[in-house]
Amino acid sequence: MGIEEGVVELHDDKGKIDKKLTISVHTFSDLTYTSPVVFLYLLKECYAHGTCKATNKFRILQQKVYHALENSPQPGPATFVVWCLYVLPIFGLHCEGFSHLIISALRRFLNLAPTLEDTSKAKVIAARLFLDIVGGLVDHDERIVVKILEVFDVKLADVDEALCQLNVQDDYKPDTAKTLVEDYIFKLIDSQSYMTAASLLEHFSIRQSGKSFLVKMMQNKQSRAAEKWATFMGKSMLCALVQEYVDQNMLKQAYETIKKNDLKQEFPDVYHKCKESLLKKLAEKALWDLAEAKTHGDKQLLEYLVYLAMEAGYSEKVDELCERYSLEGFLNVKESEGSVLQSKYLHLDELAVENIIWVDEVDGLCAATSHIEGCKVVGLDCEWKPNYVKGSKPNKVSIMQIASDKTVFIFDLIKLFEDIPDILDNCLSRILQSPRILKLGYNFQCDIKQLAHSYGELRCFNNYEKLLDMQNVFKETRGGLSGLAEKILGTGLNKTRRNSNWELRPLSHNQLEYAALDAAVLVHIFHHFHNHSQSAGFPDGHDKIEWKSHIVRKL
After folding, report:
1. Predicted TM-score of the model (pTM)
2. Torsion, Cα of 238, 241, 243, 246 (10° steps)
3. What pLDDT digit, counting tens, does each position of 251-280 carry?
4. Distance, CA of 221 to CA of 555 (rounded, Å)
5. 183-197, 271-285, 474-488: which has the minimum mean pLDDT?
6. Cβ(21)–Cβ(5) under 8 Å?
7. How crowded is residue 359: how many other Cβ atoms within 10 Å of its Cβ?
8. CA neighbours closer than 13 Å in the CB half-sphere of residue 422
């Protein structure tokens, strides 16, 4: 049986050929007279040759070993593998990797074609192997030990039987298998191998360790091991784990444990506190619809969400939630909060914007295009309805805002595309591809991508001329456009509506103002920066050189 170089095809999830790789492979066509040592040597030689990366070699050789187990290894597939595990440590650096490889191949083989006689013999040898590993006679990584016990289903009774069959030396006489296993586990705990220790406690159904073990794992930041062990131990230890999470302010982990193990009644306050923390994070990201869905109609959580909306100045969301869920007692509070919020964020009247014009028909489109063509500088922005379904396609861009000094036009792209696509294409091409108009955006690459994806049939979104992305000019600014507005103009933007339903018709007054403000503020930041660079805290001449170098003449 020789080693030959062959071409192996790797396939992706859809069954298509992902790549072709060269690797030295052995047919392993008949293992009747092949010893474990020879088999492993040939496997090592296969691994040592070829052009594959290590991960691809592992996948290919795992497949080869799986098929080899069908070719009469003696005295049987499972027994053959456990003898391989006995001799693998002599292969040094290859030991751990090859152990994972042949165990995973055997696990797959046993799922399809187990033989009772073979697996019973293998279990006896595996129990003896475990004793030799614990006694230091065979050297295997602790994670391999767990896999050996699992794949060969070695229990305490099997270890006990193996002990009885041994002529044990004087310094190696544990009273029972349980004592031996516990001693081994305590050594793992002392070496802080908590996940392995927890796995072995679960595998052998040993429940002696108490809360101190849980605390020790949490103190050493081994929460995954702690959760695995607490799940095995049962409800009382899971409750102790939740309390540890709360004490360490790990509210997300506490919430997940409560939810997964139905502990809501045991920790009602913690559960609501965790839910409120989640709602607050979603509200900070302006994911209001998703936050509402996460309440599942719970009145206490809905009231908290209303307070968050009031705090953010999102008055229509407050009204919407109060009306939908018949929540009372918020109107007076909302009015008193309103005056405070007025001074907290930038408003359109501070930017001297005189008109917000909604454009959804041909005459309005032509008039808006003529007005914008007469401008030297305009601000651009887009909005679309968020999609919260993981893996689904994003929604179409709903509106495009184009702002001059005193007027903001809001184009209903969905309606204009449906009614007059050719005229829309022509008008926006005259604006977006004009070398005379400086177009300002913020992180506009995202909008460009979304526009092209939404309206691929229109040529207007394929090319842009004289575009300046303000994010590239102010790279050090945090907080997005709102942070930039606060830095340059002294007041930030209220971004609570950015993830609202932009396909709603008509848009609310607050939605129109929000959309208009995002485009208009770009023009004012540009003029302020261009005309008052020294008062804005920038070096003299910065406005004359740096911002011009960022203009994209053609895209």
Report:
1. 0.58
2. -130
3. 889 989 999 999 989 998 888 888 888 898
4. 50
5. 474-488
6. no
7. 24
8. 0
